[in-house]
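<tokenise_the_fold>
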Amino acid sequence: MEQIGFTPHSLIVKIIMNRTLTKDIPKVIQCFQRFKGTNPKVGLPASVDINKDNAVFDEKTHTGQAWDQSDYRLQRFHTAQKMVNPNVAMELIAQVPSIPCEDNVVACDGGHPALGHPKVFINLDKPGNHACGYCGQRFYNTHVTKEEHKDVNYISC
């Protein structure tokens, strides 16, 4: 260690103590020898303070994830641009109008059986919209629900 000029508390000692990284020790020693006697921050990217004014975020996904452009999680999009579908299912099903029903119980099967939606029976006794827990389709009973109750929503699972 003395020939390289490092103290016992240096990074090279910590790497040597870690037995899982022993194959990379020659590379680390060469890197430290190259910068021996120079400013320790040479070769490192300049740090920039990020605040609300200069932060640039990528496009927000349907789960609400949006990262700053300097975030390491964006490395997977280095060779190709991230494709985000702007059509979120919750917003699309909210645009579909509620289905009026005459009965107290309605069955929702999601349309096609190959889509994996089981047949669900939804109780429509309370006034308001009752949404299916699988597909989000809303139903209401015309005998119970008045105009002032159409903004009330229930979810049936």
Notes: Strands lie at 99-101, 105-108, 120-123, 129-132, 138-141, 153-156. The chain has two domains: 1-47, 89-156. The chain has a mean pLDDT of 74.
